[in-house]
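As a warm-up, study this chain.
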Amino acid sequence: MDKIYQFLVWASVFFYWLLIAGVTIRVVLKRRALGVSIAWLMIIYIIPIVGVILYLLFGELNLGRKRAERARSMFAPYGKWLETINECEAHRPQHQSFLARPVHDLCLRRAGIPALAGNQLTLFNETADILRNIAQDVREAEHSVNMVFYIWHPGGHADDVAKAVCDAAKRGVTVRILLDSAGSKTFFRSHWPDAMRKAGVELIEALAVSPARMFLRRLDIRQHRKIVIVDNKIGYTGSMNLVDPRFFKQNAGVGQWVDIMVKAEGPSVPILNSIFAWDWEVETGLRYLPDLPQCSLIEEHRHANHSVQVAPSGPGMPDGIIQQVLMLAIHQAKKSLTITTPYLVPSESLLSALQTTAQRGVTVNIIIPAKNDSLMVEWASRSFFNELLRAGINIYRFNGGLLHTKSVMVDDNFCLIGTVNLDMRSLWLNFELTLCVDDPEFCDDLVALQNGYMANSSLVDRTEWSRRSVFNRPIEQFFYMFSPLL
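Now compare it with the structure written out below.
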């Protein structure tokens, strides 16, 4: 009997060693950021069995067999559709600024997406105005309304949009809505899904969270894009979910969320619509590629030579493209670089790029919320302050609520605006979208908005920061070790 027990003990030890060794080899062989691999190895060794399970659930970019197969089959038809746009009159790379051209070349070569000129852009920074304008454009829709959001939360002006969507579907407009399952869980428990479906809305729950399929697909891959397209002519995108801040996370203690959205009219709208079509097909298998844009331009039009580059990222799309776009924009700054982000947990390469840019004399401003809705991200962000401050970077902590705006302004003349946070989740995991805008008038509006944010912020003083409580530092260091996974 003792020999049996001894055998079982040794067999268990061998199995345990084999399991840890096997997962360790798998982590090492996956070629990704070194910090990510080290963070996973720490988890696996500190909490061995639980760490292995967590790695199997969340350690690798696994979209699921069916979605991955759909994405692979979509490259050819979508590539052909985008290739046609290269001949469009609105594709004018020769007129782009020196800041915009490298980003265009990268997106064109890696994703096949050209920058197009001739767009009319409007920047909205009041959430009530955003929701009212979306609702009004939906009410005036004649043919189609397409939407994808991470969060749709019932209440306030968000319900006005929901009612406008139902009314549009009832009068015969084709309405398709794709909402992330985890982000919009409150919405899917409300009466609105039934009301929309009864009205004729095609409503899809994207990336459904199902414990039964946890080992078949990574559950924390999220649909983080925010897009509204009306009649393939009007498009909205930006940082704002479809929520009224007065009714959203009021108990979080961070104040109301502060967001922006861009309203676009012009040839770039069908490209935005094609991103929605991509997401819709990945989730449903149904193809609805939009009509090609109307490309004829009037030479005297003030936006005839100012381009908009649509830059999507996420599973099934070129790896790391959004980080490459960010790196290009940061390294090209000559005078100033201003970034707004709610979550500041940069990758090693982005951190180095920000430090190098400041150290070569560029004024670098980073604006983040004073209070964050994620405790882990709050502490992880603080762990980077010392390195950023030592490089001469200005860190502003916004006091007017949870600043959720995601924007990058380069030399006051070229900007990135969209859904991407400065964290590993946005850069490598989620479905995201960024507009790269080469339009001085639009950039002036964004510069004014960013200046307003800084005026309502507290500048972090390096000397004062060095005097913070000694008890905070080990907490910051702990979360820093796991920051590549946040």
